[in-house]
Amino acid sequence: MELADNFMEAKYSLKSSMQMLMEIIASEVIEELEENWGSAQKHMEEFTKNINEFKNTSEDESWGDKYSFKKSEIVDFGESLGQRFNSEFEPGLKKVYNMKKVLLTNSRSVNAETADLKNIKSSLHDMDEELDNAGSDIISELKTWN
Are the beta carbons of 120 and 99 closer than 8 angstroms? Predict the structure, then answer.
């Protein structure tokens, strides 16, 4: 049961992180952005914790030798998902947060429609789509295992 719980919790945490991506992009003031970023960090930490639990659960000796092939598959699967999350989703979400912070910080200036800020707005849209795809791919992989 622990393994199934970890799969479900990992999906929930990632979906929550994806929701926070939308909330970060929709933030209208710095305070709202910071609150949303704090929530996103919490959900990303939970995802990482659940992925680590895959490995811990699969290394549990109560499984016996009968399922050793499955245990190694689960460890490999968890490591693969963790690497994808850590190399694609998490740094991408941090980049979105940083770009949105620059945008909100400079949006009230006299020259709020500079080329740099327009580029940031365009990049936020692209990053949103890219991270949605990365998150959805990871969730799809999680669904194949439970």
Answer: yes
Mean per-residue pLDDT, 122-130: 91
Question: d(Cα 17, Cα 38) in Å, to the nearest integer?
Answer: 11
Q: Which domain holds residue 77?
A: 2-143
Conformational region of residue 64, where left means phi above 0, alpha means psi within -120 to 50, and beta covers everything else: left
Helix axes 90-106, 30-58, angle to 10 degrees: 170
Domain count, the chain: 1
CA distances from 138 to 89, 95, 126 (A): 10, 19, 19
How many residues comprise the chain? 146
pLDDT tens profile 92-115: 999 999 999 998 988 766 565 676
CATH for 86: 1.20.120.230
The mean per-residue pLDDT over the stretch 15-26 comes to: 96
Write down the pTM of the prediction.
0.85
